[in-house]
C-alpha cells in the first residue's frame, strides 16, 4: 500500500516545503498538499504532516523526515503481519 503523506500549506513556513518537495520525487508515495488539515493549534507551533491519516510531528523538518520514515516503516511492518 502506498503511503499517503499530507501537508498543510499553512505549515510550510516551518520549513516543511523542502521536505514536501523531496518526498514528491519518491514515486512510492502519494504526497498531497491541503490548504488546511484541521490541526491549526499544532500547525502554528511545529512541523507536522499526516501519514495515512495519523499526525506525525517533530521539532525540525529534518526530524520530521525521520519521523515520517519511521511511521512508514511501522505501517509497512503492520501490512506484512496482515499478509502472513
TrEMBL record:
Q: Quote the protein name from its UniProt record.
A: YuzB family protein
Domain of life, per UniProt, equals: Bacteria
Q: Which InterPro entries match?
A: DUF1450
A Pfam family assignment: DUF1450
Amino acid at each position: 500500500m502506498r503511503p499517503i503523506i499530507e501537508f498543510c500549506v499553512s505549515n510550510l513556513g516551518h520549513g516543511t516545503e523542502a521536505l514536501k518537495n523531496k518526498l514528491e520525487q519518491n514515486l512510492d508515495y502519494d504526497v498531497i498538499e491541503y490548504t488546511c488539515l484541521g490541526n491549526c493549534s499544532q500547525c502554528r507551533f511545529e512541523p507536522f504532516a499526516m501519514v495515512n491519516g495519523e499526525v506525525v510531528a517533530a521539532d525540525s523538518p529534518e526530524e520530521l523526515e525521520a519521523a515520517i520514515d519511521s511511521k512508514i516503516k511501522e505501517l509497512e511492518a503492520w501490512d506484512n503481519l496482515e499478509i502472513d
